[in-house]
Write a structure and sequence with these properties.
This protein is mainly alpha-helical and about 400 residues long. The protein contains 19 helices and no strands. Helix 3 runs parallel beside helix 5. The protein starts with 10 loop residues before the first helix and ends with a helix.
């Protein structure tokens, strides 16, 4: 009896993958646009750095506080509907922000954008897990993990060429409008199912929050995010001090280093599809990031080697989001709870995104760049230990 061929991705699957990944990139632009527009916002509204920082940081705070709740909402409302609502919130927030005449309204618009961002990054993997054939999901999920560096780098590269920050806001709204139309027409609706009660939804959320596997996965993502944002939140400043270059050049080099994260994202999908062990990829990436730290934070090498180490740090680190996101279905208690687990993992990611810059900022201010190196090394070693505890390869085999 002939063996049926393994399922392969058809054009219609890649069409859905491209739209879902595009939605993630549009969402990530909302993160990068506030960072690159900070000097213009300071000039228009007379903001100090702390106030301007909240315009970027509020998205991470929302993710930290509401990840598992948003995951529960996506599980209840459906992934396609949640993605469309998220894109709609991006449009609404960007339009309100573009019309804002004061800081309070602009900050409120960023909260709307943050809510949309959270729904999109949780619904996206759920759609891919549902729409892509079983056993063929590693590469699409690896491509999905590119959304954050791609969106941030795109905003940083395009932003300086626009006339003012409001043009950037209007442009992001336009991109979201195009994307919502494409998603509405192309992403298939989920099979109808009986809607769970709110009591059952909250019970599912508590069940996920108490599960060892999802918690360890969230811990792995938190430590990766801490390491990544500990460096890249201050990379322009570090490059300006080390290389004595102007702010604009430091921003371009930082965007280049950030974009190199995509190389690791794509490489992870290729390696996983060919049977690479998840734990080996993660531990190797954590240790490579950790041990590149001395060359970055200490004045051991010249300018070019230091920049190349920053690129290596980001590129190798890109392995981790792809491996961790593709591991969510393996550790979720059930398929219906994948969005809830994704929400918990995103909470871990945002915990690192908030804690990394704060910890490094305090450490550098008090003890210099050597203290930042200590944080990176400790996080790398701790992450390697947590990865071993997660037993990802056993879950994949099971």
């Amino acid at each position: 009896m002939a063996t049926a061929p393994a399922p392969s991705l058809r054009d219609r699957h890649w069409h859905v993958v491209s739209i879902v990944v595009g939605s993630g990139v549009v969402a990530a632009i909302q993160v990068g646009k506030a960072a690159i527009a900070t000097p213009m916002l300071q000039k228009d509204f007379g903001l100090d750095l702390a106030a301007a920082g909240w315009l970027t940081g509020i998205l991470a705070v929302l993710g930290l506080l509401g990840g598992i709740l948003a995951g529960s909402l996506v599980a209840r409302a459906g992934d396609r509907r949640s993605l469309l609502v998220g894109l709609g919130l991006l449009i609404l927030g960007a339009v309100i922000g573009a019309l804002a005449t004061g800081y309070a309204v602009l900050l409120a618009s960023r909260i709307l954008e943050g809510a949309g961002f959270l729904l999109i990054i949780i619904a996206g993997p759920a759609i891919l897990n549902r729409a892509v054939p079983s056993g063929q999901q590693d590469v699409p999920l690896a491509l999905w993990s590119c959304f954050m560096p791609a969106g941030i780098a795109l905003a940083m590269l395009v932003g300086p060429f626009l006339s003012d920050w409001r043009t950037l806001w209007w442009g992001s709204a336009g991109l979201a409008a195009i994307t919502i139309a494409a998603a509405w027409m192309s992403i298939p609706a989920a099979p109808k199912r009986t809607s769970a009660s709110w009591r059952r939804t909250m019970s599912d959320a508590m069940r996920v929050a108490a599960s060892k596997g999802p918690l360890l996965l969230a811990g792995c993502f938190a430590l990766y995010s801490l390491m990544f944002f500990a460096l890249f939140s201050f990379l322009p400043v570090l490059l300006m001090e080390r290389m004595n270059i102007p702010h604009g050049t430091a921003g371009m080099l930082s965007a280049l280093a950030t974009a190199s994260n995509i190389v690791g994202n794509v490489a992870a999908g290729y390696l996983l599809a060919r049977g690479a062990r998840r734990s080996v990829l993660l531990v190797a990436a954590y240790l490579a990031m950790g041990f590149s730290g001395p060359g970055i934070f200490l004045q051991i090498f010249g300018d070019t080697p230091t920049l190349l180490l920053c690129i290596l740090f980001a590129a190798v680190g890109g392995l981790m989001p792809a491996v961790l996101i593709s591991s969510i279905p393996l550790l979720a208690p059930s398929a219906a709870l994948i969005p809830v687990v994704t929400g918990l993992v995103m909470q871990g990611s945002n915990l690192g995104q908030v804690a990394g810059p704060v910890a490094v900022g305090i450490a550098v201010e008090t003890h210099g760049w050597t203290a930042a190196l200590a944080i990176i090394l400790i996080a790398a070693l701790l992450a390697a230990i947590v990865t071993s505890s997660a037993r990802l390869d056993d879950s994949a085999a099971g």
